[in-house]
Design brief:
By secondary structure, the protein is an all-alpha fold. The protein has a single domain, classed as Monooxygenase (Up-down Bundle). 83% of the residues lie in helices and 0% in strands. Helix 1 packs parallel to helix 4 and helix 3 runs antiparallel to helix 4. It is elongated and about 45 Å long. It starts with a helix and ends with a helix.
Amino acid sequence: MNVTQVVGTIAAFTASMLFLPQVIKTVRTRDTKSLSLEMYILNTINNSLWITYGFLSWNYAILLAQVCLFPMGLVMLFFKIKYG
């Protein structure tokens, strides 16, 4: 793994962790009134496409970020639908 890949992997991981505090807050409070259902639907589609792209191109930085983001997006989508 070269320096570019290391930096890309770290950047992808830290970027995906930016979403974690919102997921934790939503799971704890069950409050989704201010969240957009359409945004989380599009987010889930987007993550699915990025995961597919990451596999097809063997881009580990993209795969790492999306594999972290996808389950968080699904949790948010679930809570928005359930507690909307």
